[in-house]
Amino acid sequence: MRVVLTAGFDRALHAVALAELARRAGHVVAAVLVVQPLQTRRVRQWLRQRGVRSLFDAARRLLGASGARSPDRRMEQFLRQHDIAERSLTRWCRRHGVVLQRVRDLNAPQAVDALRAARADGVLYAGGGILRRAFIEAAQGHVLNAHSGPLPAVRGMNACEWSLLLGMTPTVTIHVIDDGIDTGGALEQIRIERTSADTIESLRGKCVVAGVEGLLRALGALEGPLPARSPAAGRERQCFTLAPVLRELLEERLGRREAS
Amino acid sequence: MPQTQLATLERYAVHRAATLAWLVRGIERGQGGSCAHFSVAMGWSRPYPETTGYLIPTLLANAAEHPELELRERALACGRWLLSIQNADGSWNGGLHPPRPPARPSVFNTGQILKGMVALHRAGAGDAFLQAATRGARWLAATAQRDGLWSGGDYRASVTPSYYTHVLWPMLEVWLETGDAVVRASAESGLATVLRRFRSNGALERWGFGDQPRAFTHTIAYALRGVLECSRILGAWDEIGARTRPALETLLRRAELGGGRLSGEFDDEWRSTANFECLTGSAQTAINLLSWEHQEPDLRIVNGAAKLVDRVCATQHLRHPLPGVRGAVAGSWPIWGRYMTLRYPNWAAKYHVDALSRLSARVERETEALCASS
Questions:
Q1: Which residues of chain A neighbour B4 with C-beta distances below 8 Å?
Q2: Chain B partners of A242 at a C-beta cutoff of 8 Å?
Q3: Containing domain of residue A19, as a range?
Q4: pTM, whole model, 2 decimals?
């Protein structure tokens, strides 16, 4: 399978894992599209949606640091388990002779042209912002994503957290990206096992790892017709980032579960 | 049972106490009522009967938790002041007090004062308050047109604005206490007229101060709140309250997309027409979202309300050297925005306190359930 990979920043560990494991499985990574993270528009949008404090966490991740509470910690373990030493998409691309295109926006003509030029069977989406019609059409609708929540019930941001808050089992859904928010047809649903020691961050980490594994399994599906949007898709209210008070409530819930 | 207190709830309590203390300062300078607003240039304004009226339920609701602020005594004093300035026909005049001649009775102000009168009656403050409320509600019913609204508008609009649902609601509150069928019939007639003004996108025709389709979120929230409260009193969520759902869904989404920054003004196509936030409207919208969520529980709605409340909190100065600014809520943010420019209105503070109270109570319900289950 010939695929294009997207990423929201150079040191996105899950994107590195996807690229390397897809390559090892015999697929061809034709191009990697990395969105430049340090853009005024992106920073402003980030600040609005997640607040100032989250910028520090984001900066740490951009620089490749993964703290004890970071979901990246589990991805680090995953990379080590698979003997993947690389932590940067730029270096991975250089090593394997893959075109790496830095773009301001995945929907910009530059990104869409790079996607067309790659003549790929499909796209593995590993971040980079909401995809618009031009990009999806250039990929002929063959764009796969790992969503950290059970679709169609939990769509939008912080899906792992919302699954827990809304009393659902944490689940990763491998699905097709269409022009709605998490409304494309689902290929697989992966239930995430919870333990009493789990925190929000550790569960997020488990979701990311399950998402990488699920996307790799789903690559073969790009050969045939992809599942259509379910009639229930998009009916549920979209989720957004958790307000601090609800994040604390969720932490309290998880803490209580551990204590009980 | 293990107790829990979330850090953000503690922060909300600090903001609520500071805002209540500011409201108390406004009452102390209000010559009987509550000053309409404070501005750094002009100081405290004259008292405003309208907002003094609807401030009373807020004072009473917080009295037990803040005995040091003597909120019940202040609510009673404000109530007595309002009794003293009620017109012989049962109405109250418009504008600040004393009114500039010629004094004119005001439909909207009378409606808002009814809330205070009813709240004092329910708090056991005496029959005089219910009698005053009854006279006020009967005046409103008697002066309403056949469509249940009032001719000639009351502020800047040439026709009765849709935010007069905020008058119909207190009329129904009076009916709850008195059983006065004429008052209820009049309020229901007005409500039916406003409900016909809902557009398919959830916007309401004539929801602003003027005749233009654009409106501050303050009056949008007034209009929606009135519908929500009428629906609560009449026990008719499906027929009445649910009509607000499209508008609230849109406001929720806008609040989320802005991380709590809600544009201060929208037109009837939901296009933002402002480059400022109307903090009063944001706090009121948070209350409306929580009212909706009470009917259709969903923490995703609470999340949007929390972001609006957090945003208003973020604009407050809790340690400002000027007592008129410390704990106040600006009309607009930035403060030079078009709504209550450079002023800190008492109704912004009132709605912020109410929003903080409602949100805290809602989250506490979740934590109590958590404690009970563990």
A1: 252
A2: 303
A3: 2-148+173-228
A4: 0.93
